[in-house]
Each structure stands twice: as structure tokens, then as C-alpha cells.
Design brief:
- It catalyses: ATP + protein L-histidine = ADP + protein N-phospho-L-histidine.
- The chain is an alpha+beta fold.
- It contains 22 helices and 19 strands.
- It has 4 domains: 231 residues, Rhodopsin 7-helix transmembrane proteins (Rhopdopsin 7-helix transmembrane proteins, Up-down Bundle); 102 residues, Beta-Lactamase; 172 residues, PAS domain (Beta-Lactamase, 2-Layer Sandwich), CATH 3.30.450.20; 143 residues, Heat Shock Protein 90.
- Helices cover 50% and strands 20% of the residues.
- It starts with 8 loop residues before the first helix and ends with a helix.
- About 3% of the residues have low confidence.
Length: 683
């Protein structure tokens, strides 16, 4: 048989699945709630599921025969709901008299008769005159002329439903607390399908040709309301009237108080927790040690759920308290049910974990799939200067260095798609604008949640010291060792050459000694930079560059030095910044093999930083040197020929800035340094 897609098939299938799910849930929990309330709920859900599924099949059929066949099941679900819905409403409001055999027969005799007639005589011509399939804009639907029997049954169902809505409306108005919300949601869940059905009959919604019954289609929306009232307001757990039966084997403590605030019933767990909660005792005396519980009994505006601590035999006990009102006639409070749940073990574990997180030397955060931070551990203030309240709710990627954001975003996305932790190294912004390097692990918090936990360890100092050790180790093992070997080798040759032929060797020894002396001087300067207690200072970069360029021109008169600086460029930098700038300027001349070295020093504003460019027309820095600094590492085969640029790199980094080395065309090098503006420059 051929099937046709319609716009209503998916909502109907959703409604069917949800309805059958409610029926299964109610059957599986048949020990809860009142007998009549539970089974009438199961009947409502089952009938709605049959109606929705059958109507989906009817709309999907493309010929008249199958359409009318599935329509029989539609009538079966409709008739079943016409009986189950009133029974559910009367059970909910405790109108048990209407559920007796004689009165209840008035509700089921008509729907049962209609269902029997449909399955024996058929809908044609009992309810449909001249049924046919017509085009409704891409799919075919049933068209017919309603018979008096059909109009009579529709009128009957509308009348019964209107009566149930009046009953539910009165319950919503007359009660308070959770039961007012229960009744209001049930009222809406009942009215919505009826209203949408009436709109379809009136032609307000639906196709121009044929007829679409919107009642079962509306179940796809009302199923959400039904889930809300079942799981949020626990309608199957506690009914408005069935308060007098408290299960003796309930593991949680239960105390029932009347409208005057006196204890009228307790179970064994409650008696163990509150020995003073004897029958007839007022709540103020029964809960003298926990005033919040006494207030919940006497104050209608008390919280529905809160926590208290009671003194146990060995240690304090932590309890959650659920407060449920018993609604009496009108809007008065008929009493209160208190449900006490012992969460001591869970609370103890939570406190331990909270202490571990808050005292952790790492930054621990929880982030959702939307990229927003849900939680940040207090250690972030100690490590980065940010307050957790200022960071929570912000996109996590905002804290990552722009150059590291792509890698961080990819790791973040992989963490949601994989059960394996994702690790990366990146820079995170401090509150003062500087950057710290972190090793971060991202992994799913739980398999069924859309959150990840992020653990970030500050490795800035460790990486810095590792880098410095690599450089100094290379100097001691490579440069100094090799140069010493050269000196020793030529010194051996001098033993056999004490005449004029030994002069070239003496020249070589002299040059190597000068080289070692220069390296030693630089190493000493670096040692001062690494181990000094120099802090941040506000330095006028314009004045500093002008002064150092003037000194450079005096020391190297053959060089042409050009300076372009603003009137003022105050930066917040390491006090050793002068040493770094002098080193760059001197390198631009010393390593220039031309007869007329040219150096250009420029200071310009660049956002919230100032940029210093030192450009020359020398031979340039080999690519391997630039790679060493960009990757911030040293190896046996890749090492800078001098220590000067390492000194510059470290001082600029300590200043919270950045450094970049580029090649000029046709020849030369430009060294760029970005340094943060001083606070007064940002205002």
C-alpha cells in the first residue's frame, strides 16, 4: 500500500509515542497515588496514543479503503478518551460519587455505543455521508458530509469536556500552592485540543478542501504539559485529597501538620530525626532546633524546598525539606506535609570536593556547549587576577590569546565529541593585560550532559625556567666549549711557533678571547635580568628611544640613525626595558656588514599598546634564528648565535608584551616590540 507524507504525520507520531510512554510509566508506577487516579491517567494516555497513531495512519493512506479502515481505530481512541478524561478529572478532584457504577454509566454508555456501531455498521453512512479523498495541496485527505449522528456525538463530547473544564477551573481558582498549578496545567492541557479542534471545524486552520481533525495533533503539545504536571508537580505521587495515607515503609521522614500547625501524623524515620514531633504538638515545639521547618508550617509563603542541619548522635545530619500544602475548601490551607530526606553523605562529599576545588593550585572551570563559563574556581583570582563572578557567564574563548584561539576552539569542540580528554598549551589573559601560559585539559563532565570540565595549570614559570636552562646549557656545552677547544688547539700550535710565523695564531687567539669575553658579558647581563628583583615601571618609550639612538650615533659615527617617535609614549614595562632596547639598536649596527649602516627606530600607537620598530639594512637574521624565537625553544642544531635577542625576548615577555622578527626587502631586518600602555595612557 502506498503512503503519503503530510505536515501532520510527525506531530501525530510524537503525540503517540509520548502518550504510550505515559501509559507505560503509569503502569510501571501503579503502587503510587490513588487507584482511580492512576488507572484513569493510564486510560487517558493510552486512548490518546491510539487516537494519534491511528490518525497518523489515516492521513498517510492514499486510497479511500485504507483511510476508512484506520478511521475505525480513530473512533476507538476518541471514544476511549471521552470516557477516560472525565474519569481522570473526577478522580483528581475527588468526586468519587461520579465514579460509581450508575453515574459513571452516563459517561461511558454513549462512547461505547458509538465505538460498537463504528466497528459493526461502519462509519459510512453512519457518520460520514459520501466520503471521498480530496487534494489538500500536495496530499489527499478525507472529505465527507457529517450526519446527524456525528453532530450529536460531537455535541455530546463538547458538553462533557466543557463540564470537566469548569471543574478543573474551579479547582485552579479555589486551591493554592502546588495544587493550583496542577489544576491550571491540566486545564490548559484539556482546553488546547478542544480549542484547536473547534478552530479546524470553523475553517480557521487547516486546508481549504477536506477536513483535518486537530484534536490528536494538539496532543503533541499537550504531552509536554502532561509531562510537566506528572514529573514537576508529581500528580501521581500526591493528590489534593489523598493525604491521610502515609506509607510506613517510606525511607524518608514524613510529618503531617493540620491547618492549626499541630502534628497529626509521622512515620518512623521522622520520629528518629525529631523526637519532639509527637502527635498534637505544635510545630514551633516539635521543630524548636530548626525554626525554618516551623516557619514552613505556619507561613504560606515559605519555600517549597530548602535545607536544614540537625544534630545527630555522632555528627550533624543534613536534610532537604520538601513542603507540600494540603488544600482545603476554598483557598484556605488545610495543612502541610513535610518530607525530610537525609542527604548527609551527599553533602559531605560535595563539601570535600568543593574544598579540593577551591584550594586547588589550578584553575578549574565548567563550560557549556554554548561556550559560556558556568563555574570558575576561586583560584582564578589568585592566578590571573579575575574574580569568578566577573568571569562566569562570559565566553571562555575571550580569555585565550588571539593566536591560540583556533586551536583552543578545536580542542573544545573535540571534547564534546570524544570521551577522551583533550590537552593543549595556550596563553590566558591576566586582569592586568599580561599573558600566562597554561597547560589545559578539557573533558566531558558527564556522558549525558552538555558540559565540559576544564583544568588549567599555569606553566609559565616552568616553561620560562626550562627555556632558560636550555639556553644557558647550550652556551656552556656548545659555544663556550667549542671556543675553548679552538683556543686550546691554537695554543698547542704556538708551542712550536715562537717566531713571526706564530703571529696569525696569536690573532686567532685574540679574536676568540674577545668572543668569549663578549659572550661572558652577555651571559652576565642575562643573569642579572633573570635573577634581579626588578618590577614594573612606567617608562616613556619616546624619551628612551631618542636617548639611546643619540648614544648609538655617538658610539658609531659611521652609522645613520633615524628616529620617529610621538611626543609621549608611556608604557608599563620591566625596569630592564632600557637594556633590551639598547641591545636591539646595537645589534642593528654591529652585525651590519655595510660601510654605511642605516637604522630606523619608530614608535607608534597600536590599540592599547605602543609598538617599537627597529629596522636596519644589514644582512638579516637567518630563518633558523627566527624559528628559535617563535617556537621559544633551543636544540643542539637550532640555536641563536648570540644571547642578545634572548635577553630582549625575555624582558619584553616579562613586560607583558610581544616580540616579532621580520625580514626587510631587499635586505635587512625589522624587530618589532609591543608594550602595554601605562594606566594613565589608557584613560
Amino acid at each position: 500500500m502506498a503512503w503519503q507524507p503530510t505536515p501532520y504525520t510527525a506531530p501525530l507520531l510524537v503525540a503517540a509515542v509520548a502518550s504510550f510512554g505515559f501509559a507505560v510509566y503509569g503502569t510501571a508506577n501503579r503502587s503510587r497515588g490513588g487507584h482511580a487516579l492512576l488507572w484513569s491517567f493510564v486510560a487517558v494516555a493510552g486512548a490518546a496514543g491510539v487516537w494519534s497513531l491511528a490518525y497518523a495512519a489515516q492521513l498517510s493512506a492514499t486510497t479511500l479503503g485504507p483511510t476508512l479502515f484506520f478511521n475505525r481505530f480513530v473512533w476507538l481512541g476518541s471514544a476511549g478518551l471521552a470516557v477516560a478524561w472525565p474519569a481522570f478529572v473526577f478522580s483528581y478532584v475527588d468526586r468519587t460519587a461520579w465514579l460509581g457504577r450508575r453515574r459513571f454509566a452516563l459517561l461511558w454508555v454513549v462512547p461505547v455505543a458509538v465505538a460498537a456501531a463504528v466497528w459493526t455498521a461502519g462509519v459510512d453512512p453512519l457518520f460520514y455521508a459520501d466520503p471521498s479523498l480530496v487534494d489538500a495541496g500536495g496530499y489527499r485527505v478525507l472529505s465527507y458530509t457529517p450526519t446527524p449522528a456525528l453532530l450529536g456525538f460531537v455535541g455530546y463530547t463538547y458538553t462533557v469536556n466543557l463540564f470537566t473544564f469548569i471543574v478543573l477551573g474551579y479547582a485552579a481558582v479555589s486551591r493554592d500552592g502546588v495544587f493550583r498549578r496542577q489544576a491550571a496545567v491540566l486545564f490548559l492541557a484539556g482546553v488546547a485540543p478542544l480549542a484547536l479542534s473547534a478552530a479546524g471545524i470553523a475553517g480557521v486552520v487547516g486546508p481549504d478542501a477536506g477536513f483535518i481533525d486537530f484534536t490528536p495533533i494538539a496532543f503533541s503539545g499537550t504531552s509536554a504539559l502532561l509531562a510537566w504536571v506528572v514529573f514537576r508537580y508529581r500528580i501521581l505521587d500526591v493528590s489534593p485529597i489523598a493525604r491521610d495515607a502515609v506509607f510506613a515503609n517510606l525511607s524518608d521522614g514524613v510529618v503531617v501538620c493540620d491547618a492549626d500547625g499541630r502534628v497529626v501524623d509521622t512515620n518512623d524515620p521522622a520520629e528518629a530525626l525529631f523526637p519532639d514531633a509527637e502527635l498534637g504538638v505544635r510545630a514551633d515545639d516539635a521543630f524548636d532546633d530548626v525554626p525554618a521547618v516551623a516557619d514552613a508550617v505556619t507561613d504560606p509563603a515559605a519555600d517549597d524546598e530548602f535545607r536544614v542541619t540537625v544534630n545527630g548522635d555522632d555528627a550533624p545530619r543534613f536534610l532537604t525539606v520538601d513542603v507540600h500544602d494540603i488544600t482545603g475548601p476554598g483557598t484556605t490551607r488545610g495543612g502541610t506535609v513535610l518530607l525530610f530526606r537525609d542527604v548527609t553523605e551527599r553533602e559531605t562529599l560535595q563539601r570535600r570536593y568543593r574544598a579540593l576545588i577551591e584550594k586547588s593550585p589550578n584553575v578549574i572551570a565548567v563550560c557549556g556547549e554554548d561556550g559560556l563559563l558556568r563555574y570558575v574556581s576561586p583560584s582564578i583570582e589568585r592566578l590571573l587576577g579575575h574574580r569568578p563572578t566577573e568571569i562566569e557567564g562570559r565566553p571562555i574563548i575571550d580569555l585565550v590569546h588571539p593566536e591560540d584561539r583556533r586551536e583552543a576552539q578545536q580542542a573544545f569542540e573535540r571534547a564534546f565529541d570524544s570521551a577522551e580528554p583533550q590537552s593543549l598549551t595556550h596563553r590566558i589573559a591576566r586582569a592586568d593585560g599580561s599573558w600566562r601560559r597554561f597547560e589545559t585539559v578539557i573533558e566531558r563532565l558527564f556522558a549525558d550532559t552538555g558540559e565540559v570540565v576544564i583544568t588549567a595549570t599555569d606553566v609559565t614559570d616552568a616553561r620560562r625556567y626550562e627555556q632558560r636552562l636550555q639556553v644557558l646549557n647550550r652556551v656552556l656545552r656548545h659555544d663556550l666549549k667549542n671556543d675553548t677547544n679552538v683556543i686550546g688547539g691554537y695554543a698547542d700550535l704556538l708551542r712550536d711557533h715562537v717566531d713571526e710565523e706564530g703571529d696569525p695564531y696569536l690573532d686567532i687567539i685574540d679574536r676568540k678571547v674577545r668572543t668569549l669575553t663578549h659572550l661572558s658579558d652577555q651571559a652576565r647581563e642575562i643573569d642579572v635580568a633573570l635573577h634581579s628583583d626588578a618590577g614594573r615601571a612606567e617608562i616613556d618609550l619616546s624619551e628612551l628611544v631618542e636617548r639611546l639612538c643619540e648614544s648609538l650615533s655617538s658610539s658609531f659615527p659611521e652609522a645613520t640613525v633615524t628616529v620617529s617617535v610621538p611626543e609621549s609614549a608611556v608604557v608599563s614595562a620591566d625596569e630592564l626595558l632600557e637594556s633590551a632596547v639598547r641591545n636591539v639598536l646595537e645589534n642593528a649596527v654591529v652585525h651590519n656588514d655595510g660601510d654605511d649602516p642605516r637604522v630606523e627606530a619608530t614608535v607608534v600607537a597600536d590599540g592599547d599598546r605602543f609598538r617599537l620598530d627597529v629596522a636596519d639594512d644589514g644582512p638579516g637574521i637567518p630563518p633558523v634564528e627566527r624559528t628559535v624565537f617563535s617556537e621559544a625553544r633551543e636544540t643542539a642544531l637550532e640555536h641563536a648565535s648570540g644571547l642578545g635577542l634572548w635577553l630582549v625576548h625575555w624582558i619584553v615577555t616579562e613586560s607583558g608584551g610581544d616580540m616579532e622578527i621580520d625580514t626587510r626587502e631587499p635586505t635587512g631586518t625589522v624587530v618589532r616590540m609591543w608594550l602595554p600602555r601605562a594606566a594613565e595612557e589608557r584613560e
